[in-house]
């Protein structure tokens, strides 16, 4: 392995040129890598920026299908949502970026991988790159660059003004969602400023008639939309386009970060919101009460581990085995009504459901007699009655 060559992951237009120039003073060869997870960018512009900044080579890696198939399928089956509004768009993206970068580093026989992440993301990237046997370089941290240095550099070298670049906001985007934080949003009492609203609602329409569509699932994974088979990535693209127009999946939350500090962020995840709404309903429809109760516990722990960057933790592997097993019978179709800022399930069908029409309307026939309920109610209530009596005696 070579110690005088480094692979630098392109992430932020504001930081990238400065980081490449800094790495050039430390390493003989700097190779810029752009990993595509569905973020909308002009690849030719990115390559030009990297080469002008001093990169010796530029590599584009299309990781969209792998990101959807290897990471987002697991998130859907785990009904992954953190603290009621964050669908883990960045937390899922970081181990995928690390995995893709290590693949390229192995091909090029490179040891060092530099990234441009801060906050929670620097922890996620450092851990996952190290686990995959490479040496991480947290460029912004290691070179001790603060916002003033970065912004001064951007002005000096004419880095274009754009949302999330040369302004107070920090943004992150991929096919699973967009996040906006920092700047005025750091104050929890501040309403979303107009420039941030323009970014979040740029595709939104005014009030419109609801849209109805059907999603087909097999083993808990979305496989079709309105009866037409699609790859998961294609389904996400379609739902994002529809959901953004209807302002679906936008959440303003204050979350607990990896080290416990609270941060505020605005998240836009239309496809994630729609898909997990549909999956959760179908999973509940196809599973019994004990499975559903326990699955909520499993899902919560899965989300906590992924949020914390522990993609390769053995416990997550065990949880994935349970989730995969339970989702073997999550098959069927969910029909949704999509309207302005909402996504509601309005019907569901499945050949693997345990739902029985006769039981649902108390027409049990030979299955059991309604008279059996009297004995069940008495036995089921014994411990509650005893507890109530004990508390009453304590008051006397």
TrEMBL record:
Query: Molecular function (GO) terms listed?
Result: argininosuccinate synthase activity; ATP binding
Q: Which UniProt keywords apply?
A: Amino-acid biosynthesis, Arginine biosynthesis, ATP-binding, Ligase, Nucleotide-binding
| GO term, biological process aspect, one | urea cycle
Keyword Nucleotide-binding in the entry? The reply is yes
Q: Please report the stretch or stretches of sequence annotated as the Arginosuccinate synthase-like N-terminal domain.
A: 10-160
| InterPro entries reported for this sequence | Arginosuc_syn_C, Arginosuc_syn_N, Arginosuc_synth, AS_cat/multimer_dom_body, Rossmann-like_a/b/a_fold
Identify one Gene Ontology CC term for this UniProt entry: cytoplasm
Q: Which Pfam families does the UniProt record give?
A: Arginosuc_syn_C (PF20979), Arginosuc_synth (PF00764)
Pathway participation: Amino-acid biosynthesis; L-arginine biosynthesis; L-arginine from L-ornithine and carbamoyl phosphate: step 2/3
**UniProt entry tagged with the keyword Nucleotide-binding:** yes
Signal peptide interval? none
Q: Enumerate the spans annotated as Arginosuccinate synthase C-terminal domain.
A: 169-385
Q: Which EC numbers characterise this protein's activity in its record?
A: 6.3.4.5
What NCBIfam families does this protein's entry cite? argG
Q: What is this protein called?
A: argininosuccinate synthase
What is the gene name? argG
């Amino acid at each position: 392995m070579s110690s005088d060559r480094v692979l630098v992951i392109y992430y932020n237009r504001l930081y990238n040129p400065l980081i490449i120039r800094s790495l050039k003073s430390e390493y003989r060869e700097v190779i810029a890598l752009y990993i595509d997870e569905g973020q909308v960018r002009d690849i030719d512009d990115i390559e030009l920026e990297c080469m002008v900044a001093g990169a010796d080579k530029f590599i584009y890696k299309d990781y969209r299908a792998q990101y959807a198939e290897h990471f987002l399928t697991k998130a859907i089956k785990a009904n992954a949502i953190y603290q009621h509004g964050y669908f883990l768009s960045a937390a899922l993206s970081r181990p995928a970026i690390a995995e893709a970068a290590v693949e390229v580093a192995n091909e090029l026989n490179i040891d060092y991988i530099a990234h441009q992440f801060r906050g929670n993301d620097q922890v996620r990237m450092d851990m996952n790159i190290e686990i995959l046997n490479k040496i991480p370089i947290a460029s912004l941290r290691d070179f001790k660059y603060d916002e003033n240095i970065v912004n001064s550099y951007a002005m000096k070298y004419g880095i274009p003004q754009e949302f999330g670049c040369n302004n107070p906001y920090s943004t992150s985007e991929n096919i699973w969602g967009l996040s906006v934080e920092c700047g005025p949003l750091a104050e929890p009492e501040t309403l979303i400023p107009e420039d941030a609203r323009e970014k979040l609602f740029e595709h939104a329409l005014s009030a419109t008639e609801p849209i109805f569509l059907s999603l087909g699932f097999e083993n808990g994974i979305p496989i079709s939309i309105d009866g037409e088979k699609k790859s998961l990535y294609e389904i996400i693209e379609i739902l994002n386009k529809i959901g953004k127009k209807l302002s679906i999946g936008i959440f303003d939350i204050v979350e607990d970060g990896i080290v416990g500090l609270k941060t505020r962020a605005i998240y836009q995840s239309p496809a994630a919101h729609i898909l997990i709404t549909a999956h959760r309903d179908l999973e509940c429809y196809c599973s019994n009460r004990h499975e559903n109760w326990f699955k909520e516990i499993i899902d919560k722990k899965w989300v906590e581990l992924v949020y914390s960057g522990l993609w390769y933790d053995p416990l997550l592997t065990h949880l994935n085995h349970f989730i995969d097993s339970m989702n073997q019978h999550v098959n069927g179709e969910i029909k949704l009504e999509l309207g302005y800022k909402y996504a509601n399930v309005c019907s569901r069908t499945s050949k693997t459901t345990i739902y029985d029409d006769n039981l649902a309307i108390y027409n049990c026939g030979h299955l059991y007699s309604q008279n059996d309920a009297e004995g069940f109610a008495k036995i089921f209530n014994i411990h509650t009655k005893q507890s109530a009596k004990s508390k009453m005696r304590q008051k006397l």
